[in-house]
Amino acid sequence: MDDVLQLKRRVLELENSLGKERTRSHELELRLLEGGGGGGGEEPFRPKIETMSSEVTDSNPYSRLMALKRMGIVDNYEKIRTFAVAVVGVGGVGSVTAEMLTRCGIGKLLLFDYDRVELANMNRLFFQPHQAGLSKVSAAEFTLRNINPDVQFETHNYNITSLQHFQHFLSRISGGGLSGSSVDLVLSCVDNFEARMAINTACNELGQMWMESGVSENAVSGHIQIIIPGRTACFACAPPLVVAEGLDESTLKRDGVCAASLPTTMAVVAGLLVQNALKHLLGFGTVSSYLGYNALQDFFPNMSVRPNPSCDELYCRKRQGEELARRAAQLESVEPALKETSDVVLHEENTWGIELVGETTTEEEAAATGQVPHLPEGLSLAYTRPAQVSLGEEVEDTEESLDSLMAQLKCL
Ligand SMILES: [Zn+2]
């Protein structure tokens, strides 16, 4: 027993010193980059801009973005400077995501990745061959700062799935916002289920909205998904089969075999992800709940997935309880008459609590089957556009009565 305790203590000590070494090497890399090794000078190319302006001049980097207001798309584009977004995973999707947000003038970006740039990454966008060997977060920060010095950056060169770093990751999600509050949005751009589960656990615990993205190993399909703890299915509510069956994904990988990747699919998925994030943050258009992309058929399935009342994650069930209580309280205060509606419990036999939005005819379904994105068991596709996902605080349109909500609350 003593031996085990000693070993555990030793592992913690080693993890601590590794963390310190990483911080030192990160600082060293930044100094090297600033010294000219990264291809730029010590100072960013342009000075900071205090106020975003709509002025149409060749030297205004925001004129085309501010024109969204004149075109009637966005009411208040300048608001983008008030948001902090965490990008977890700065690979093929994450680096492009971070670049798009930087060019859009986001207030603050928090980047998390433990990997280094390799020549094997050069089939994707963003990183360049001379950056090989540098940590992805340092190389990204340097490039992005030069593109837009108005953005604040915070980088973390560690693996969020390790015990020690997970706690720090949690603290940066809850305290890394612009005024020390929680970040406004977490974007998952990681390439493995373990890291997605870590983000899921953190966001369920904190009640933090996040958006998940993924590209398939054969490089020809991908998806984005919004996860609002308690309101939509979390990553553990409907886990991919590899996780549901308790398999260790590292055992699925073999030496000399790697996943395929295309810069096209990754950029499309990054574009869909940032588009959804901008629509949510700036309040325009329809925010997609789940949007798939099948490159072989140019097919974009769109659906919404409800949370699973018997999800394995304690904090997911807790957030579902809070959500039901919130909706019950709203119904009670706003629409007392709704109490008298019939007690129809939706999806009584639906173990997963999954509801698909959108009606599909048999003909449409038959025509659209074939190569579709890999979906967890129990999920099928809705081919028509679902009703708009409401993200505001207004009373939601629901067919459920107050009694039905209270009954669900008791079951949790
Ligand atoms: Zn869940």
TrEMBL record:
Entry keywords, A to Z: ATP-binding, Metal-binding, Nucleotide-binding, Ubl conjugation pathway, Zinc
Record carries keyword Acetylation: no
Domain THIF-type NAD/FAD binding fold intervals: 62-311
GO CC terms, sorted: cytosol
KW Transmembrane helix (keyword) present: no
Any Pfam family hit: ThiF
GO biological process: one example: protein ufmylation
GO MF assignments: ATP binding; metal ion binding; UFM1 activating enzyme activity
Highest taxon of source: Eukaryota
Family: Belongs to the ubiquitin-activating E1 family. UBA5 subfamily.
Name of the featured protein: Ubiquitin-like modifier-activating enzyme 5
